[in-house]
Amino acid sequence: MIIAYVVLILYAVVSLFPFLWSAIVSLTPMRYTENGVTTGTDIMKWPPEINLFKWPPEFFGAPATGENYVQVFKITPYARWILNTIIYAALVTIGHLIFDALGGYAFARLRFPLRDLWFALFLATLMIPGHVTLIPNYNLMVRFGFVNTYYGLFLPKLTGVFGIFLMRQFFMGIPREMEEAARIDGASIIKTYFKVVLPISKPAISALAIYIFVGTWNDFLWPLLMTSRKEMFTLTVGLDFYRTSYYTYWQYMMAASIMMTIPMIIIFLIFQRQFIDTGVSSGVKG
Amino acid sequence: MKLNFKTREAMVGYLFAAPIIITILIFTIYPVFAGLYYSFTNYQPTEAQKFNMTFVPEESVSFHLGVFPDEEGLVKNELLSLFDPVTFLTLDMGVKLNAEQKEAVSSFLDTDKIVEDFLAGRLNSSVSVKDFMKEYMSSKSELFTRYVPEFVGLKNFREMFKDQYFWISLKNAFVYSIVVVPIQTLLAILLAVAANMKIMGQRFFKTVFFLPSISSSAAISMIFWLIYSKPGVLNRFLSTFGFQAVDWLNEPNTALGAIMVMNIWTTAGYFMITFLAALQSIPSSIYEASQLDGAKFWKTFWKITVPLLRPQMLFVSIMGIIGCLQVFDQIYFLIKNMRNITISYYIYKNAFEYHRMGYASAIAMVLFLIIFAITALQRKLIKEESYF
């Protein structure tokens, strides 16, 4: 029992420490003035001279400040990157919400020619590593002229096999009686879907939405390829902006890292249950 | 007209399934075949751009013939005899040509018309190579409108087997998976077992352990870049135990290991949730029985817990291996040394930095085969599993 506590607490410290350390660095001023002398802050200083019993607290011997968080918006188009990331993540999420639910329902309930063949094909595509399709997809976007546009970012990602499987699994689990009752009342398939099926699918759909939103927010490789102008960067791509081959603006970089992580932590804290449901239990069955 | 239910069902079915079918066809199926085709060619995107380049024909012709259009006493036939189409295109227009294009140029380039327009001063505005060739080729101008990569057969694959960086990156990807997957799986099980005991704050621990896996790999890479840096906090911490400072990410012997540790840190908590869910569904009577026997913790762990978690372990390790073989983001951000790259990063580097998409596609195909084999193995293993 005690060993269990020791293990858990130790690993909790290990889990949290990198976040705390970067938060501390992000709150340390680039330079500070003491007795009329301005010096640069050394964030590699050891011991780190952390004093939390003061206001503002002191890190690395300098009074904590939110200045870096403001500077990040000034030296880079950070606000634009936030906007780009929100647009990218939101459009992809909306696409998945609509198309994955539709497709999942079609494959769960409707009979149409070649259905099983399509489904087997989808299963097979799960084996294809992303780097195989990357180059042709990139060239496709170049040919369409979609590089450095939102279309290039979100178009290939509007729906996906994972979401289709998840929704199909969910729809197969709900009883047929309600749909049959609606049909006997004369409702069309489309009407049944929107009036009967969708309203009871909220838990599955919201779990999928959160999963996709977080995944897209954190996506790196595709935005890296699709954006070359810094006005079109997403937050993950922009992060490399705070370091050059010669110098790293540690404070800005950490402030930017913390700022892009906080929304995900908030989403996670609010929707914990959905998180723990989608990622894992569905996968084990698949 | 009233359609019967079956027909309507089929129509609605296709309507509903159309987005996913179209997406898969365009962005997965087509790319696989396109990639397969590229892998047998010398596809170079920089070459694909060459026909869209613009130039001023008058300048090129001037260079080629060594005269200006407004000079006096120019005789068309004399200039024509000096005009060599292939040299004109390759040297004075700066367009690389393959054998077929060279032949087409020497037989079909309308030099007569070019010289005539040159003398008349009609060539002084800038134009794209594509449009110029359309205008002045009497035939086969389509060779210059679309870039067609050369078919090179198995050359890319032969080159790959002699390419030391291919082998290094492939080996690194395998080493990476083989080290990361067992450790993260075992760590996740240990954490799950600890969290499954009747302890306070289970919810807190679950939340904290899950945090790393919802943060972006970009932000995590940067945070660890700070921690791993030579004067950074990890070295300071280790120095209190008398260790020498190590430049973790720039030292070829430690860089990959450092990223492995980071990866384990990121994913162990995530997989812990999988195991915890499984553990909670194991009837506690099994454990109680073993405790009455006075069985020790480790014995219970190895004899009961681990075997019961076999399906989840299989799932987690196969998913882990497939994920690890494709590790990219962390390598992109943190590795500056060609000795420590992994295969997916090498694909990226070839395609988007060296502009050798044909070669990159060939490597991607090899990665595809490897992952295909592992997935097939997984299917087999999981099928066997269900017999138990």
From TrEMBL, chain B:
Membrane topology: Multi-pass membrane protein
GO cellular component assignments: plasma membrane
Pfam families to which the protein is assigned, alphabetical: BPD_transp_1
Keywords: Cell membrane, Membrane, Sugar transport, Transmembrane, Transmembrane helix, Transport
Keyword Protein biosynthesis found: no
Gene3D superfamilies: MetI-like
Cell membrane in keyword set: yes
Location of this chain's protein in the cell: Cell membrane
InterPro entries: ABC_transporter_permease, MetI-like, MetI-like_sf
GO biological process: transmembrane transport
Residue intervals of the ABC transmembrane type-1 domain: 170-378
Transmembrane regions: 12-33, 173-195, 207-228, 255-279, 313-335, 357-377
Family according to the record: Belongs to the binding-protein-dependent transport system permease family.
Name assigned to this protein: Permease component of ABC-type sugar transporter
